[in-house]
Amino acid sequence: MINEKKVVNYVKNRNNSLKQQKFGNLDVFIKDNVADKINLGAVFGHISSILPDNMINLIDIVYVGNFDFLENRSINALYMDQAIYVSNEQDNNEDMIDDIIHEVAHAVEEKHKYFIYNDNLVKKEFLGKRNKLEFLLNYEEYSISKLNFLNSNYDKEFDAFMYNEVGNEKLNNLTNGLFLRGYSVVSLREYFATAFEEYYLGNRQDVKDISPFLYKKINSINEEEMETN
């Protein structure tokens, strides 16, 4: 679990040494330089071109750099308190765009949480897929008796099992056509964020075909935000 107070204090103490850039209305603070192959202008320009302004405005600030709390969790980005922390170590522009869009998804989910989950349709869709995954893993003779497939919240033990025991390649193969990506199985929040990312960066038809109830929610949010831009 991230210590939010510790992170905020860390950033405050480093603010004098951070380089600030502004892309549209978005403030970006650079703690550590990105590689020459990364063009931050192109990254944030593309994000601004595909997301409604109201979604981008949910983010107060983006911090780019090498952060221990990202490395410790083996993740490239994190959304917390209206800020996105993203690693400066990226393969290319698209890699950084993916990470940032995924974290914007968590901000959007936070804003529209009642609309997304109140009728329980998305949760039921997610747990139905989890049930099928449990069957598939049993068929593959994985030892899953200690895992709770009905827990829609993030569970460290569940995540570790999928990452370490099953592995990304196998998990993606097992969930092909069931989930958009293997990482979607980790929690209901990641189920939403992964679909959001695919909706804006990938194939919307895939989202509609694989996660129809979630697609309706994301599509409605998109239409609403576009109308109020």
Give a quick set of tags describing it.
12 helices; Zincin-like; 229 residues; 2 domains; five-stranded mixed beta sheet; alpha/beta; disordered N terminus; globular
Structural summary, described in words:
With 229 residues, this protein is of the alpha/beta class. The protein has 2 domains: 4-110, Zincin-like (2-Layer Sandwich), CATH 3.30.2010; 115-228, no CATH class. Helix content is 56%, strand content 10%. It has a 5-stranded mixed beta sheet with strand order 1-2-3-5-4, with helices on one face. A hairpin with a 2-residue loop joins strand 1 and strand 2 (26-30). Helix 2 packs across helix 5, helix 5 (93-111) packs across helix 10 and helix 10 (188-201) crosses helix 12 (212-228). Mean pLDDT is 92; it is low at 1-5.
Number of domains: 2
Output the helix-strand order: HEEHHEHEEHHHHHHHH
Oligomeric composition of the shown chains: single chain
Number of helix segments? Answer: 12
Shape summary: globular
Low-confidence stretches: 1-5
Largest sheet: 5 strands, mixed
Please outline the helices and strands.
Blueprint: H1 4-14, E1 19-23, E2 26-30, H2 40-50, H3 53-56, E3 61-65, H4 68-71, E4 77-80, E5 83-87, H5 93-111, H6 113-117, H7 121-139, H8 156-166, H9 168-174, H10 188-201, H11 204-210, H12 212-228
Parallel strand pairs: 2-3, 3-5
Antiparallel strand pairs: 1-2, 4-5
Helix pairs in contact: 2-5, 5-10, 10-11, 10-12, 11-12
